[in-house]
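Subgroup meeting minutes
Present: P.N., E.W., G.H.
Scribe: E.W.

1. P.N. recapped why we're keeping a running log of single-chain structure predictions: easier to compare across weeks, and new members can see raw inputs and outputs side by side.
2. G.H. added today's entry (330 aa).
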Amino acid sequence: MKVFLKILLGMAVATTMSGAAEYTIKVSHVVNANTPKGKAADFFAKRVEELTKGKVKVEVFPSAQLYKDEDVLRALQMGNAQIAMPSLSVFTRITPEMQLFDLPFIFKNKEHLYKVIDGNVGNKLKQKVENKGFIAMEYWDAGFKNFSSSKRAIVEPVDAKGQKFRSMSSKVLEAQFKAVGGNPQILPFSEVYSALQQGVIDAAENPYANFYNSKFHEVQSSYTLSNHGYLGYLVIMSKKFWDKFPDDLKPLVTQAMREATIYEREEAAKDDERIFQLLKEYEANSKGKFKIYTLTDEQKSSWIKVMQPVYPQFYNVIGEDLIKEAIAAE
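Output recorded in log:
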């Protein structure tokens, strides 16, 4: 009995010395833990606990275990979760200006993209999200989108004519496809594979990870490295939670998120390279059934010329000044 009491006493002392967390942050996201976003969420959790010396515990819930992207904004407003990183498209419902990210060819390359999202334009868009009752933290990468098709390789703008494209629910993306004579079909991502397989749609646009991990290469005969659009995430926090969070701990959480953002972007770049090599291997073994195309500078210029008329259609929604500022970002 005395031995048992000593064990209990020892456990109590150990617990007191280690200190229980004073605050808990629940992070909700919809992807697998092994993706760049999933890894970065776990990295953030570890760094917060390290920097705050255990005062703050971060619990990460991947694969929509807590909420789907379309439900998470409400959950944060109610304080049922504290951090989420939804796709940028989710925010267009509450902040129409976020449709800037759907504009085709608005980003010249990754360097230009980061100048936009980490600069004045990105901050302006964050502020618009914050005006809706959130704390906007950082932008994370999903990657640049490329065209794919099982009907006809999409290399020149004329190749898109008459093709049925899967489209997210976005007026900008619908206008983008119509500009090249395509026929946009709005479909949930979960239905895209079967729709491609059955010929309900002919073509799609996806970054490397979405395209390969969803096995679209099995039901598409071509993949064109167009880099015409961007997919990303905005990490947001519950304002209700942040307003009550201790001021002395806020800089530590912010630092952890900044480090996690750098890590996420590095992981996304590595993932792109890894998956591209897998696609190249698949192409080599496909016996001509699958081919990867790379646009020449001349071909890319043709696409830009045809698609830029989409921009003025959304000056009143996104803001002409904001669009031009993004284009000119240095």
